[in-house]
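Researcher: Please translate sequence to structure tokens.
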Amino acid sequence: MFDVYITKAAKYLPNEAVSNDEMENYLGLINDTASKARRIILRNNKITSRYYAVDKEGKSTHSNAELTRNAVVQLFDEKFSDQDLEVLSCGTSSPDVFAPSHAAMVHGLLKNKSVELNSSTGICCSGMNALKYGFLSVRSGNSKNAICTGSEKVSTWLSAQKYNHEIINLKNLEAQPIIAFKKDFLRWMLSDGAGAFLLENKPSGDISLKIEWMESYSYAFELETCMYAGGDKLENGEIKPWSDYKPDEWLNESVFAVKQDVKLLDEFILPKGVESMSEAMAKHNVTAEEVDYFLPHVSSNFFVEGLKNGLNEKGIVITDEKWFMNLLRVGNVGSASIYIALEELMYSGKLKKGDRILLSVPESGRFSFAYAYLTVC
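Model: Translation complete:
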């Protein structure tokens, strides 16, 4: 078994930062009416700026694969070129196409050489799952290096035109032409971007982060779906997939829209997060005192105090100065968020050798959680 180090990190955030007041200039107005939920949601999540890979006409400036490629190529230099790469492991919840895989599409843009590919799907944990694949590949000796990524391109999923047919259908049925909160909610939560890590079996450069361990937990065996796209939720909690709908229903019911069961989110995301993090730390005999920087991916600042309180009740008291977050400035970039946050910390000048970093990533899809523990070398 070999030690594994994150030797370089990179991020790519498209275009200029978009303020709260500018969001509907990019995403558009549904039914030519400003969202009544937008200000309430933004007041709770406290995000002040984010990035979109679209212009004000709603036209794409980058694909998801291009965002990812633009992060990956920053990892190449005279010491490690694109010809040295052995494994490319990519995670996303918003691939450009169902098939081929996201990793294959990114590799197609790199045009370097034949490499081993892995694509991780899901929601926020897909980026951590991609990282774990690279970690295990290098750790086992299967490869000497791997590049792992997390990326999202959700702006086009959230554009007003994606909901227009549903609004027209509601008007035809003489119903109130307002989309459900479970759909409108996420329009003001998500943003675009990509992050990438280079993993190697020895440290390199001025700073490297040794991956001590990674752990993942799923509660899908006991909890129903909370966040989903490409289907809709039935009264019994089951998901009816897009392939079981008629083509006109795809548009009339916005079947491909990203949706969130907010009640389930509020009930389970924090308790299951505290439970899984407590188990992961206990398994590896890590205490709160042995964490110098805590990087929690949270979808909204609304959950921060609740997470602190829940951890405190479990005896995991991580003091405020150890928390490192950039959510308010870069937005919720899903699977890329943890990459973008760690890249910022890695090159902040704050880290010193021996510092220990705990990464925490929840996923509300069907409640999954992923953790990583790093040591600065």
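Researcher: Any highlights?
Model: The chain has two domains: 5-159+186-206, 212-219+260-376.
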